[in-house]
Amino acid sequence: MAASPGSTPGTPRVLRAMNDRAALDLLAAHGPLTRTRLGELTGLSKPTASQLLTRLEAAGLVRTTGNVTGRPGPNAQLYEINPAAAHVAALAVDQEGITAAVADITGQVVGDHRVTASATDETARTRTAELVTEAVDGALAAAGLGRGDLHGTVIGTPGALDPRTGTLRYAPHLPGWQSRTLRDDLSKALPTPIVIENDVNLAAVAEQHQGSAQDFDDFALVWADEGVGAAIVLGGTLLRGATGGAGEIGYMPLPGAPLARGGPDAAARPDGGGGFQKLVGSPAVVELAREHGIDAPTATKALATAARTPGAGDEVLTELARRLATGLASVVAVVDPELVVLSGEVAQAGGERLRELVEAEMTGLALPRPQLRISEIEGDPILIGALRKALADARDTVFDTA
To answer: Element (H or E) spanning 333, and its range?
Structure first.
């Protein structure tokens, strides 16, 4: 077939690189495979598959890992991704510190570390880059690695990095992260590509990879925790907005919530003084429970007590479901997702009972009727999402044999 105008005809080198990438992606997805099975999955002949594996083994990208036994004929050699081919770092930032994890190119976490530093600590505000590198170095040390072993770093943080200015917006409660030179400071300290991504967006990546949103191209993840936000995925693409602020529904005006307005007082609080967060964020849930005679220090404990307290507890859950449904109806009416995933401390603590109440409350509020699910991610979805993104970016570089 003739190449179309403007296209580049395939060359043996390009075709080899395409086959290499396809094989590496299959090994990353399936784990160890025999040459025969890899040939079946890629459609390559046995000689071509053998040449490919020999080439990738010489490049240090794959290695042998034993044989398939227990079947007729000679034992078949198994091949797998070489875990040491590359390593990545992922970080999750919150108001109390930074958690870092280091994984090899297969996705296996080989080291982690937590640095505690309150965002309100005046000294922490001027040491952001230092704290990040401390967290990364701790995880690398736990893995027996050094900074030079890293091929990429993804940092998940509240707020969003404005692509026009390079500054973090929508996160006034993390003052140390507002510096215009932050990216440069981090790049000087860590000799790897660095991506700063919204934490809720990364939670959505985790849901797509191994959670409730697998096989969905149109979904919204609503995060209800200390902060409230959303990640919107339409046609398989994350919606970001002009300033990176798409999904900042914590500021969304709703009946019963004060308006979120600017000013020096609002700048010190993650909710900006009002909006949806004032109704369903963790502090709001603690206050709601207290109004019904349930005194608990956290949203998780408040909702656990409500679940086993007839009467007052039922009222807490019903009111919380009404508030959540009101906010979700606004999101659904605008973007019409096929699925809404509820995540964060409030959703996890409320569980299936809260989900059912929200679903019932949404009846009649919004014309579209998306599926509604509670996140089933085990572990920190922000850190998991950061690892998935870091791995995807690193593989694009490391797996490119062209």
So the answer is: helix 312-335
